[in-house]
Automatic annotation (TrEMBL):
Signal peptide: none
Pfam (any one): DNAJC11_beta-barrel
Gene3D superfamilies: DnaJ domain (1.10.287.110)
Alphabetical GO biological process terms: cristae formation
The organism of origin for this protein: Neovison vison (American mink)
Domain J intervals: 1-65
PROSITE patterns found in the cross-reference section: DNAJ_1, DNAJ_2
UniProt similarity note: Belongs to the DNAJC11 family.
Designated name of the protein: DnaJ homolog subfamily C member 11
Keywords: Acetylation, Chaperone, Coiled coil, Membrane, Mitochondrion, Mitochondrion outer membrane, Phosphoprotein
GO cellular component: mitochondrial outer membrane
Main function: Required for mitochondrial inner membrane organization. Seems to function through its association with the MICOS complex and the mitochondrial outer membrane sorting assembly machinery (SAM) complex.
Membrane topology of the entry: Peripheral membrane protein
Main location: mitochondrion
């Protein structure tokens, strides 16, 4: 509202406050309606100045915005606290609110995996089934399935109960298990977890897991387990030591004793644009070396492509694939696995919120180029067809529905903001007239036209409706000494502005005259703007 930068000094705040007070002071207006409107806007300016002129409330607003000021409990905070202390106090108050809501929370997670045997598509024994009815069609079968689910129930701020279960079946044989775990956060540096389990394939299980930060850059995890079975007690111990090698790289050392004993070392580097892993394991029965790389594209769909090479006593496997966000809560991925002696497989995975659906499709036991080709091209063709014909129209309809709900829920507030903006423009008229006279006398900055809202320049979106408001007067009112400076914040909060298209991307388009020459600029809603500038000049040579 005051149009000051976040780092504004007290003098800058006072100057902006005085300017708006002069503009909106009720005593300057004789008309009863204008006087009433001026009084309301004057009070809003005064409230904004009170928040920003107080070091404590300003620190809260800078960090958490308006919602921070509405947080319960601030009235007990000492006035002399620093911004860092205020941040800690805010987080403490948030924790208290979370504790009151603990009993209403769970964190469900689940996985459904369906294994499909499609080897009949490429490895057919035609000579053995020539006389069998229906043998002309490939037989595709579901040969295994796995379902697991877990929920977390917070008991206190430090204790959490976890209940999980799973069911598995493969080629007609199956079983299940159920596990109960109790986790306690012992300090800011560590936690411990006790686990009890039972199943029809395995006997009772007792486990203990410990996590501890040894230093700010190093932590250790230990998992001990006792598996009871008809063959006796089978103990197991897994220890992982990890260290941050730099800001984006972590090194791991793992030692596993008991069932499938092994030693493993790996280095994982994760940055904004890539994820790289190299690992080496020596163990019984599996020893292998692994290298994998994932590239993260910086697009709205969070597209990622990946590839890996794994070689060991079991053979060699090359895997490549991609994943992409298809909606707000869903990520779809596919990978092709080519190996000796495993053959060729296609793995399709869908993550929907905290649920994972996994479909490994085994295509052939041999290295057939045709299987590799169809496993690679087939998912791409299906994805692009679904994306164009189903996903994109669905997301567009969902977005429109959400925008409509948002418009309805904010309709009253937007109407009030619109009335305030219109009132502000009426109150600005006299000031704007004086500013224009002063600027014209020195060939200064004159706002010819200004619009704020949604512009449609793309021909592919020409069916969309343009939603803009005229903000020529409010912008001219902000001109001082032939300069206009807008801070890096949404312009909907400026005096005389309001949001004409809630939830949609907005821009500000300005046509202005400086030293008798026309200039034009378009800025995004949250983009800082300074005019005049030489780069805004309109070339009239042609």
């Amino acid at each position: 509202l005051l149009n000051v930068r976040r780092e504004a000094s007290s003098e800058e705040l006072k100057a902006a406050y005085r300017r708006l007070c002069m503009l909106y002071h009720p005593d300057k207006h004789r008309d009863p309606e204008l006087k009433s409107q001026a009084e309301r806007l004057f009070n809003l300016v005064h409230q904004a100045y009170e928040v920003l002129s107080d070091p404590q409330t300003r620190a809260i607003y800078d960090i958490y915005g308006k919602r921070g000021l509405e947080m319960e409990g601030w009235e007990v905070v000492e006035r002399r606290r620093t911004p860092a202390e205020i941040r800690e106090e805010f987080e403490r108050l948030q924790r208290e609110r979370e504790e009151r809501r603990l009993q209403q929370r769970t964190n469900p997670k689940g996985t459904i995996s369906v294994g499909i045997d499609a080897t009949d598509l490429f490895d057919r024994y035609e000579e053995e089934y020539e006389d069998v009815s229906g043998s002309g069609f490939p037989q595709i079968e579901i040969n295994k399935m796995h379902i697991s689910q877990s929920i977390e129930a917070p008991l206190t701020a430090t204790d959490t109960a976890i209940l999980s279960g799973s069911l598995s079946t493969q080629n007609g044989n199956g079983g299940g298990s159920i596990n109960f775990a109790l986790r306690r956060v012992t300090s800011a540096k560590g936690w411990g977890e006790l686990e009890f389990g039972a199943g029809d394939l395995q006997g009772p299980l007792f486990g203990l897991k410990l996590f501890r930060n040894l230093t700010p850059r190093c932590f250790v995890t230990t998992n001990c387990a006792l598996q009871f079975s008809s063959r006796g007690i089978r103990p197991g111990l897994t220890t992982v030591l990890a260290r941050n090698l730099d800001k984006n790289t972590v090194g791991y050392l793992q030692w596993r004793w008991g069932i499938q004993s092994a030693m493993n070392t790996s280095i994982v580097r994760d940055t904004k644009t890539s994820h790289f892993t190299v690992a080496l394991q020596l163990g019984i029965p599996h020893s292998f070396a692994l290298i994998s790389y994932q590239h993260k594209f910086q697009d709205d769909d969070q597209t990622r492509v990946k590839g890996s090479l794994k070689a060991g006593f079991f053979g060699t496997v090359v895997e490549y694939g991609a994943e992409r966000k298809i909606s707000r809560h869903s990520v779809l991925g596919a990978a092709v696995s080519v190996g000796v002696p495993q053959g060729v497989s296609l793995k399709v995975k869908l993550n929907r919120a905290s649920q994972t659906y996994f479909f490994p499709i085994h295509l052939t036991d041999q290295l057939l180029p045709s299987a590799v080709f169809y496993a690679t091209v087939g998912p791409l063709v299906v994805y692009f067809a679904l994306h164009r014909l189903v996903i994109k129209p669905y997301l567009r309809a969902q977005k429109e529905k959400e925008l409509e709900k948002q418009r309805e829920s904010t309709a009253t507030d937007i109407l009030q903001k619109k009335q305030e903006a219109e009132a502000a423009v009426r109150l600005m008229q006299e000031s704007v007239r004086r500013i224009i006279e002063a600027e014209e006398s020195r060939m200064g900055l004159i706002i010819v036209n200004a619009w704020y809202g949604k512009f449609v320049n793309d021909k592919s979106r020409k069916s969309e409706k343009v939603k803009v408001i005229d903000v020529t007067v409010p912008l001219q009112c902000l001109v001082k000494d032939s300069k206009l400076i807008l801070t890096e914040a949404s312009k909907a909060g400026l005096p005389g502005f309001y949001d004409p298209c809630v939830g949609e991307e907005k821009s500000l388009k300005v046509l202005y005259q400086f030293r008798g020459v026309l200039h034009q600029v378009m800025a995004l809603d949250n983009e800082a703007l300074r005019i005049p500038k030489q780069s805004h000049r309109i070339d009239t040579d042609g």
